Amino acid sequence: MGATQEVLLKKWNDFLRTRGYTAAIAEICDNYPEQQSLYVPYPEILVYDEELAQDLLEKPARVIPAGETAILRLVPQDAVDHIQELGQKLEVNLRVKELPALLTRVEIRDLRLHHLNRFISIKGLVKNTVQVRPRLHIGAFRCLRCGHVTFEEQGRMEFREPTQCASCQKTAGTTRFRLSPEDSIFIDTQRIEVQESPEDLRGGEQPQRLTTYLEKEITGTINPGNKVILNGVLMATPPRNQRAHPTTFNIYLDVNGIELEEKDFEDVEITDEEVQRIKELARDPELNAKMTASIAPTIYGMKMEKEVLALQLFGGVPKVAPDGTRIRGDIHVLLVGDPGTAKSQILVYLAHLSPRGIYASGQAATKAGLTAAAVPDEMGDGRWKLEAGALVLADKGMACIDEIDKMEAEDRSSMHEAMAQQTISVAKAGITATLQARTSILAAANPKHGRFDKFKTIIEQIDLPLPLITRFDVIFPLADKPDPETDGALARHILKATLVAERIARARALGETGEIEGVEAIKPPIEPEFMRKYLAYARRNIFPTLTPEAMERIKDYFVMMRMSYSGEGVAITARQLESIVRIAEASARVRLADTVEESDAKRAIDILENYLRRVAMSEEGTIDIDIITTGVPRTRVEKQGKLYSMIQDAGPDGIPWDTLVLEAGGTGIERKELEMLLYNLKEEGTVYEPKAGIYRTTRA
Ligand code: ADP
Ligand code: MG
């Protein structure tokens, strides 16, 4: 049956006094109402009085208020009087912390009837937070007959009127009560929604959510994207905004305390044995090849892409200079390619592989989009809520954003902030917040017109603002070009993978056990489960620093590239230098090294070269960074300028096509190229065709 109220009070009183909480209580009174909670670790209660500790979990609705009453009884009378003089009513909250996960932790999806009204703890990501508002806590009701004020404590979900006047004893039927707000007591309240964290989901599951309510001084302390453990009592309530009398209730958590989870990847638990296995794998001479082969093994080819994706999972070292400048460690990668080049498939795979990985599409279904947003709260009481999108939810992890070119206009601006500063600011409807988005981004985009246009640079064909494009460390174009040799191998690979998948399906359905024939061909050498542990271990423990040799190598490359550039611009910028450092650090991290060696620097330079050659090669066969920073090669800018002057010189009558071919030919612009340049000028709107075959500039 448990203890009666008096027994509970005595137990709490004994506990608080013996454990020396009287001083803490006195301190709270001195600082009231800034301080209004007494925090007690659960293990301490358990050691002191096992029965009380157990009752606390099973009947929190009785045990916690008893504890709060016991606290009040330990408050010296002069303190009570003093607080009353200030026009406040002293209430000290008992907040229990450090609940043992074994006894109280419940996954959101596993919440059931038997958890109702029990003290539980849940863990998750904060999806959204509604603005903090006052709630009527103790209503002051004036009797309309005698004028006396009767106080009535309110429920969170329901309004309670007194049934009888405390003075004239008239009941609710024979008198009426009017709420007197100025004599009533209000408390801050806040609703937040928590969802399961990505790493607690098994592949492809949608995270489930739970509504929770915070009250008093703990309101307004957490943000969307925070990872939290919430301790509290699971309650049921009829759904609001319904006229009928529903019998299916909603559940919510009445939060008693918040425990913020700060550690990265803390959910990936690694045993001592696994640490041994991790260190062993780190010494494997085939380590890098195995890592690469463990990235989306069913996808054929794309060796370089997979190598970079493996490095992206490890990431570089985030740095803060003494002057406070931050340099991100996260590596951002963009895949831009023809349809059907397995971009989506790769993104889904990596979101699953990465600790705290999230897959989202640019055409996000929710209002929070990819970043974050202030949106009207659906409860319809005029409040707003701050809602986290994929980048915030993947804080300290990896956000895989498919079809990034299709993202909403609002997302574009905050995406820029996210990629540069790794934060997302929201300022709307009185909500101002800066949310953390320390996320590495793997994005995919299709070329502007569906397929690659060989007359244009890759960069021109990415439908994203240039400042965003330049924030990617590496951009890989994936062209779907028919090629008899690789097509055969591609088809063989896909068919082999399909065959194995068919065999697995049959074995599952028929309950057959034993090794599946051919499975090794598409099995990752490092299984995803272990890969996640390896990644978590490396990101938690390994912070490599540059060796002088590595620095020298990177510096030499930088200087060489800048010198080799003949134009007025530059071949590479400091931004590429930072990319090289990040990739080199990641390379060292893969083998759990504390130093970035020259070989890591070389590897990073090779990767950058490969990328620049693929997207920023000028016609002369040299790398032209203008292609990345402006989208077009500077030779083309120059030629386009020349052509424009030629047309302009012809005056308002314009210049005929044949003359233009001759004149352009004289400056080394060939006919084919002329067509392309002219096409671009017309598209820009600086040149038009007043009559077919005659060209003139829009402005004379
Ligand atoms: P995208 O997002 O680039 O349009 P998808 O990821 O939807 O392409 O891929 C289309 C299909 O083609 C997928 O089923 C994918 O497995 C297959 N595919 C494309 N390229 C390859 C490849 N290189 N190896 C294996 N399968 C591939
Ligand atoms: Mg796709």
SSE blueprint:
Layout: H1 5-18, H2 22-30, E1 37-41, H3 42-48, H4 50-58, H5 60-73, H6 77-85, E2 93-97, H7 101-104, E3 119-130, E4 133-143, E5 149-153, E6 177-179, E7 185-195, E8 209-215, E9 227-237, E10 250-260, H8 272-282, H9 287-293, H10 303-314, E11 319-320, E12 326-327, E13 333-337, H11 343-353, E14 357-361, E15 372-376, E16 384-388, H12 390-393, E17 398-402, H13 409-421, E18 423-428, E19 431-436, E20 440-445, H14 466-469, E21 474-478, H15 484-510, H16 528-541, E22 545-546, H17 548-564, H18 574-590, E23 595-596, H19 598-615, H20 626-630, H21 634-649, E24 655-656, H22 657-666, H23 671-684, E25 687-691, E26 694-697
Parallel strand pairs: 1-2, 8-10, 13-20, 13-21, 14-17, 17-20, 22-23
Antiparallel strand pairs: 3-7, 3-9, 3-16, 4-5, 4-6, 4-7, 7-8, 9-10, 11-12, 15-16, 18-19, 24-26, 25-26
Helix pairs in contact: 1-5, 3-4, 4-5, 9-10, 10-18, 17-19, 18-19, 21-23
Bound molecules: adenosine-5'-diphosphate (ADP) and magnesium ion.
Molecular structure report:
This protein is α/β, with parallel strands linked by helices and 700 residues long. It has 5 domains: 97 residues, mini-chromosome maintenance (MCM) complex, chain A, domain 1, CATH 3.30.1640; 150 residues, Beta Barrel (OB fold (Dihydrolipoamide Acetyltransferase, E2P)), CATH 2.40.50.140; 227 residues, Rossmann fold, CATH 3.40.50; 88 residues, Helicase, Ruva Protein, domain 3; 64 residues, Arc Repressor Mutant, subunit A (Orthogonal Bundle), CATH 1.10.10.10. The protein is 38% helix and 21% strand. The protein has 23 helices and 26 strands. The chain has a 5-stranded mixed β-barrel with strand order 3-7-8-10-9. Strands 14-17-20-13-21 form a 5-stranded parallel beta sheet. A 3-stranded antiparallel beta sheet has the order 24-26-25. A hairpin with a 2-residue loop joins strand 18 and strand 19. Helix 3 crosses helix 4, helix 9 crosses helix 10 and helix 21 packs across helix 23. It is elongated. The model has no long low-confidence stretch (mean pLDDT 86). Magnesium ion binds next to helix 11.
